[in-house]
Predict the 3D structure of the following.
Amino acid sequence: MSTATEDRGRGGTGGGPRTRPAAGQSGATRAAPPRAPRATPRRTPARPRSAARTVPPAPRPDPGAAPRMPFVLLILGLLGGALASLLVLRTVLTEDAFAISQLQQENRELANQEEALRERTLHAESPEAVAEAAERLGMEPGEAPLFIELETGEVRGDDSGGSEELPGTGEQAEAGAADSAERAR
């Protein structure tokens, strides 16, 4: 007959090895093994303990449970890393926002300069400004143009105001002729 032996833990009855039937056997057909006399350990008389020295026994860790300290350190490390990354991200975003505001300010200043230059250009292109600049340079208004007829060889237009029928010999030419007459005097 085959039997398996188990050791009894604390709190069990019969303090020695216990046998149980092997697979396929019932407990009624088995014979009880002979028992050896049991030696009892001597107990020393208990000495009185003071209430201040009483410390509850430390709980034993469950051998199947994972240790908690590495897990706690991992979680704390992850939280610390997340906080550090948020701080760095916020700093970068703040720097970028500052750079954007500076670029927007520069853009407004450049737009104002562009508008001022456009106004100066429009003023400089006006006929009054061109006439003033020509006078400062010593230029004089032009005289009425003279035209030569190629077939007949005749010259049309004159220095005295020109003909009304030719282009460019109207009021402007007369004004130019008057100015040149005044200068000749």
Observations:
- The beta strands are 3-6, 18-21, 147-148, 155-156.
- The chain has a mean pLDDT of 75.
- The chain has three helices and four strands.
